[in-house]
Every structure is written in C-alpha cells, then in structure tokens.
Specification:
The complex is a heterodimer of chains A (about 350) and B (about 170).
Chain A lengths: L2 H37 L15 H11 L10 H17 L7 E6 L2 E5 L7 H22 L3 H24 L1 H7 L4 H6 L4 E2 L3 E2 L8 H14 L11 H4 L9 H26 L11 H29 L5 H29 L1
Antiparallel strand pairs in A: 1-2, 3-4
Helix pairs in contact in A: 1-10, 1-11, 2-10, 3-4, 3-10, 4-5, 5-8, 5-12, 6-12, 8-10, 8-12, 10-11
Chain B lengths: L1 H22 L3 H21 L3 H26 L12 H23 L14 E2 L3 E2 L3 H11 L1 H22 L4
Antiparallel strand pairs in B: 1-2
Helix pairs in contact in B: 1-2, 2-3
Classes of the chains: A mainly alpha (about 350), B mainly alpha (about 170).
Chain lengths: ~350, ~170
C-alpha cells in the first residue's frame, strides 16, 4: 500500500469512526432518557418523531441556538480551553480501539481501527489522565464556589480511581504479554469444550472485571460515583457556569468516555468481536463488528440501569472505597494471577 | 528528514513552555506550561523509539503529578505572585555563573550540530547492536534481570518516603 492510499484510507477511517462515535453519543442520551423513564414508570421522550427518535437532533439544535454566556468573573482563556480539552481527549481515545478484524476491499487490506499501535492500552490510559484537566480547569476557571468544589472533587476522584483502574488491567496484560488491544482480543480466541468462550472473564479475571467496571464508573463520573456534579449539593458541579455549546461539549465528552470504557471492557474481558461467523462473505466480514457492537450496547445499558437503580455515595465513602477496598483487591488480583501463570 | 523536523518542532515547544513557565505570573498558568513541557518531552521520547517511556511520561508526569500541582493551586486558591522589591543576593551570586555555564553548553551543542545525524531520531534505538531498546519487553528484562537489586532498593526507598509523608501529614490525636 502506497503512502497516498494509506493517508486516504486513514482519513476515511477517521471520518467513519468519528461519525459512528458521535451518533452513538447522541443516541445514548436518548436511550438513557427512555430507559430511565421506563424504570421510573413513565414514557421518556416520545413527541419528536416515532418513539422520540429525533430527540437527540432537537437537543443538538437547542444547544446550538442557546445564548452562550461567559461569566464576567471567569478566567476567560482557561474557561474556553477546559471544554476543548475535555472533548478532545474523549474523542482521541477511540483512535486506538479496534472494532473488528482485518477487512479486504479490492486491493486494500486494512484493520478496522484507525491506528494499530503496540501500546494502545497505555495510550488510552495516558489520554484519560490528561482528560482530568478539562474538568479541573473548568471548575477553577469559572470562579464560582460550586464549580470549584465540583472540580476539586472530580480531580481527586479521577486520580484515585485511575490507580485501581490501571492495576485491574495488569492481570489481562500478564495473560497476553502485550499492550496492543488487537493482540489482547486475538489471545482470547477459541473455546473450551466447544461452547465456553476463552474470554479473560472466564480465565480467572472475574475479580479484575468488577474492579474495572467500578473504577470506570468513577472515572466517567457516573452514578453511583457522580459526586463532581451532585445536583443536590453543587447545582451542577464543575459545569455550573457553562451554557450552550460549551456545556454540550462536556456532555458529549462524558458520553464519549462511556463509549470508550464500554469498548475497552469488551476488548479486555469479553473477547472483543469473537462470536459465531457464518453466511456469505459480506455478512462474514460484518458479523464480528455486530458482535462487538452488541457487547458495547450491553455495557451502555448496564450503565443506564445502574443509574436508574442506585443512590449516590457520600464523598468519604467514595474515597474509602477506592483506596481501602478496590486498591488492595486489585493488588491481590495481580499477585494471584502472577502465581497462577508462574506455576502453570 | 521528517523525524528531524518533528524533533525541532517539539524541542521548540518544550523550550517555549519552559520559558513561559518562568515568565507567567499566575501559578496555574505556570503549571499548565509545565504540562506542555512534559508532553513535548514525551513526544521526543516517542521520536527516539521509546514508546513505553513516552506513555509513562504522559501517564505519570503530565497526568498524575501535574494534576496534583493544579489541585494544590486550586485548593489554596493561590493568586498572582508578588514581586519583592530587592533581588535575592544568592540568585545574583549563583545566577551569573549558572547562566554562563548554560550558554556555554548551548554554544557547544549548536557547534556540534554536525554530529546530530548520529543520534537515532526516528528509528528504534538499538542497544549493544542486538536488543531493541525502549519497548516494554526490553525495559522489563532490563529492570527485572540486569538491574533487579537497584530497582527493588529504589522501591523500598519510595516506600520509606511514603511512610514519612503519612507520618508528617497525620494530625496529632
């Protein structure tokens, strides 16, 4: 493949990935409102289009036409920069996530992934750790008490849970011996006895999976760990002063992060796109992507289900849970996994 | 050629960030400049083929350490720094020789620029002509085979430092 073709293919892949991600983000908001509505015994959005399917478009238009207010007491450059950092880092992570095996289109043979790099997992962790600045700077630059408290809570929470999150992944890395997300999926191929898939979840990473899920909920500031934007205490937390598209950027960043976390959970613990493949060639090349999307959808649904079910933690409970329970458990998981691999 | 151009772009970003760090009056702007310096250093590591070190640089320094800096500045609500009337005498005594040494080093580096092509910018750095340097496996082998004792001693040292911090931070009952 020549350099020109390579750049063209990459650009097409970037455009497609961005379109899929933003559509997923928009429709996750609709799914959330619908599912939470049904959990609370009401309908959710139902007026814009059949079953309310044009609601995300209406919401987007509303955000664009709303007045954009910058508080006069805010630190203007940082106030502008914060939502940009939040959204950029949220969208960047998707670049290294593979959504399917290699495909062949004519003479072009390419992976279903924007960049197949050998440190994919580390890049996602790095980009996520830079994403904290979006929230922290939003809270500080608004120059308001509620924003400030929200920003402080968010940065402390995200830094604390990042450790448990990172440590929960090490068991998987010990099994695979590679940071490449594609290698991690390939290492989970095959079945036992013909029907039990060799997912990392069933290979002894059961505890790690639950540590990852809990830490990921805290990283994305979702219920039951949504202390940074606890509306009963902090109005809206770090984005209290934001309006119009700047608020929408934080909103999109939060949902894009949820999608990334769900993709990562599928890749690391549930075998990525593995699943039965049959039918004519075109179906065969698209089925893995479908299996992958199904897993991601299941994770998004659980996110929303948890939101409709659980109450919010208290802040000291949140910190004690992260440091005194998840962290030791994650370390114990590493020790046990290493012993199992060493004694095998 | 392209790696060399990229190197000069990132190096300029790094030096620019470092100068901005000193010039800015507000602590939060200085902290953000330091993040730019850390980030461009990571990109330079990446150009050298040390992808693991680059990723760790971003995760640990640009991510964790600098978040704590920003956190403390936010928590203390530190304002614009005040300039004192008279300059520090220690800075006058030590600063001038320091500046001369720094400038001398810069001149030496620039005058030896002809040898720059010997540095393996852009390709994987090769150590002892055999092992690829900078990927996670190579670093793991070095840390846990060749340098196991220094590595473990360092971790004990860090543990002692953490214990010390806990003891100092604990309130008297």
């Amino acid at each position: 493949m020549g350099i020109g073709t390579y750049i063209l293919v990459s650009l097409v892949k970037i455009a497609v990935a961005l379109a899929i991600l933003l559509t997923a983000v928009a429709y996750t908001t609709l799914l959330e409102r619908k599912v939470v509505g049904h959990i609370q015994n009401r309908w959710g959005p139902s007026r814009v289009g059949p079953f309310g399917i044009w609601q995300p478009l209406a919401d987007g238009l509303k955000f664009i036409f709303k007045e954009d207010i910058t508080p006069p007491f805010a630190n203007k450059p940082l106030y502008m920069l914060a939502p940009i950092i939040a959204l950029t880092t949220a969208l960047t992570s998707i670049a290294v996530i593979p959504i399917g095996p290699w495909i062949k289109l004519g003479s072009i043979n390419t992976p279903l992934q924007i960049a197949d790099v050998n440190i994919g997992l580390l890049i996602i962790l790095g980009v996520t750790s830079v994403g904290v600045y979006g929230v922290a700077l939003a809270g500080w630059s608004s120059n308001s008490k509620y924003s400030m408290l929200g920003g402080l809570r968010a940065s402390a929470q995200m830094v604390s849970y990042e450790i448990a999150l990172g440590l929960s992944l090490i068991g998987v890395l010990i099994y695979t011996g590679s940071f490449s997300l594609r290698d991690i999926v390939d290492s989970q191929a095959g079945t036992w006895l013909g029907f039990i898939p060799k997912w990392n979840l069933f290979r002894g990473q059961f505890v790690a999976f639950f540590i990852y899920i809990m830490a990921a909920y805290a990283e994305t500031n979702r219920i039951p760990f949504d202390l940074p934007e606890a509306e009963t205490e902090l109005v809206a937390g770090y984005h209290t002063e934001y309006s119009s598209m700047k608020f929408a950027m934080f909103f999109m960043a939060e949902y894009a992060n949820m999608v990334t976390v769900a993709c990562l959970a599928s890749i690391l613990f549930l075998g990525g796109w593995s699943g039965p493949v049959f039918g004519p060639p075109i179906v065969q090349s698209l089925l893995p992507v479908f299996w992958f999307a199904l897993r991601v959808f299941a994770f998004m649904f659980i996110y929303i289900w948890v939101r409709g079910t659980l109450p919010r933690f208290r802040y000291d409970q949140l910190m004690a849970f992260g440091w005194k329970f998840l962290l030791p458990l994650a370390i114990a998981n590493i020790v046990v996994t290493s012993l199992v691999v060493a004694l095998k | 050629m392209l790696p060399l151009i990229l190197f000069f772009i990132f190096a300029a970003l790094c030096v620019g960030g470092a100068i901005n760090l000193l010039v800015q009056k507000h602590p939060i702007n200085s902290a953000l400049s330091l993040i730019v310096v850390m980030g461009s250093l990571a990109l330079i590591y990446l150009l050298l083929g040390a992808e693991f070190v680059a990723a760790v640089q971003v995760i640990v320094y640009a991510g964790a350490v600098m978040v704590l800096f920003v956190f403390v500045i936010m928590l203390l609500n530190a304002g614009v720094e005040e300039r004192t009337e008279h300059a520090s005498r220690v800075a006058m005594v030590l600063g001038v020789p320091g500046l001369i040494i720094g400038l001398g080093l810069a001149v030496w580096v620039v005058s030896h620029l002809a040898g720059l092509d010997r540095i393996a910018i852009g390709g994987p750095m090769v150590m002892n002509g055999s092992d690829v340097f900078g990927n996670p496996q190579a670093i793991g082998h070095l840390l846990f085979r060749n340098f196991l004792l220094p590595f473990e001693v360092t971790s004990v040292l860090i543990l002692i430092a953490i214990m010390g911090a806990v003891v100092l931070a604990r309130r008297e009952e």
